[in-house]
Amino acid sequence: MGDTWSGPPQLRPGRALAHTTGASGSGSPHRSDGRSPQTPRGARHTDPDGRSRTTPPVRGRPTISSGRRAGLPSLPGLPGLLLLGLPGLLFALITWQVVADGPLARADERLSDSLVRRGAAAQFLADLGNVTVAVPVLALVAAYVAWRARATGTDHWWRPAAGAAALMAAVPLWVVPLKELVARPGPAIMGPGTGFYPSGHTATASVAYGAAVLLLLPWLRGAPARGAAVCCAVVVNLGVGAGLVRQGYHWPLDVVASWCVCAMLLTALSRWSRPRSRTPDGTGRDGP
Asked: Which of 37, 74, 161, 234 has its CA 20 to 30 A from that of 103?
């Protein structure tokens, strides 16, 4: 009180001095008894000025805690590898057997003879693989998904729909050359002629209905709705294949071979066209 002296402050005897220099004269700025620190903060190394050398994390700043860096695409997991590898191996096996007229192809022909039973129901199912039926379904779904993605501010809102359209347009680019190259005759009920392997109707249905479901999945709420959409696409494609075989339009292996190729194409589409929606920090995230 009434202290008007303006000189530099002086150290006063007492407990404060013990906390500054340490009771044992060790010079430790953290403890007065000279013992080793017991807290992580006390164990940190400091620079000559006494400041900690470690920088505390800042809110909003990403930290790397694993070997995967932000922004780099992750490698496909085991399900993705199986969906790409197993259908490819099966397609190669079927094609080899058909070209070489192997035991698998001969068994396929015998099985077909026992399955052909033409009827209205089988014809209806087979017609679901027509371009005039399957392609408009995909076009409507693609337009709806593109509109929803743009309305919600999704980055690259056009990408999923464009990928599905490109995949659909590419179907004749691989089906027609394979038909000409393999030149497999059709079932006896179809008369003379070649070009039945692989099935174009099966490929059209698989890509159209499969891609339509892939486009819709991000916009469906709840696992039941997504599961129902996937099951619907699977049932429709199984029905198309069964209708083609029952009507005698294709051998069973013609249908299975197209399923194998389309499984690989749809897997690639699901990874390439995954939408990303904007976030407040501008980094984007998988959406919606």
From this structure: 234
- In angstroms, the CA 285 to CA 270 distance is 16
Residue 270 to residue 217: CA distance in whole angstroms: 10
Question: Which residue from 4, 246, 41 is spatially nearest to 123, judged by alpha carbons?
Answer: 246
Q: Which secondary-structure segment (H or E) carries 105?
A: helix 103-115
Compute the distance between CA of residue 27 and CA of residue 29 in angstroms, rounded to an integer. Answer: 6
Write down the pTM of the prediction: 0.69
* Residue 36 to residues 33, 65, 121, Cα–Cα distance (Å): 9, 30, 85
Model pLDDT for residues 200-244, shown as the tens digit of each residue: 999 999 999 999 999 999 999 999 999 999 999 999 999 999 999
Per the structure block, which two tokens stand in for 152? 């919600």
H-helix or E-strand containing 155?
A: strand 154-155
> Which pair of tokens denotes residue 77?
């997991």
Q: How is the chain split into domains, by residue range?
A: 78-278
pLDDT digit string, tens, across residues 128-167: 999 999 999 999 999 999 999 999 888 888 999 999 999 9
How far apart (Å, rounded) are the C-alpha atoms in residues 19 and 31?
Answer: 6
Tokens of 284: 């984007």
Strands 276-277 and 285-286: antiparallel
Query: What CA–CA distance (Å, rounded) separates 129 from 44?
Result: 69
Q: Give the chain's radius of gyration (CA, Å).
A: 34
